[in-house]
Write a structure and sequence with these properties.
alpha/beta
Length: about 140
Amino acid sequence: MRKSKTVLGFDFGVKYIGIAVGSTEPVMAHPLSQLVIKEEIPWEEIAKLIREWRPAVLVVGMPLNMDGTEQPITQLARQFLDALTERFKLPVFAVDERLTTVEARARLFSVGGIRALQKKAVDSVAAQLIVETWLENTTNE
């Protein structure tokens, strides 16, 4: 039996960062919260989450166009990924996040209707989808 690893996922945006947590055994993920970016990335809040959850791995959604090309925000997400790597000395992986926001909105709407579509919930569910994608791609290897 393999030892379970905790995965912390980030849906990076210029105003908000959605956060989710998952595990490798059993394979599952759930949304946590959303951080607000005011003038800079809230590193202390991220550090607090890392201390609390003690992840073995961090994953960051990479926003790409449908054809796989980069968007203007893609470089900012890469810089965030690099900063996570440097600050926390943990393995950090990029995950293609195409359509995660669309899927997050659909999931929320299906369980709670229009009232469930709060921005805070959408970002954290998008982060959940990013973690789920990483888990699906790594646990099937």
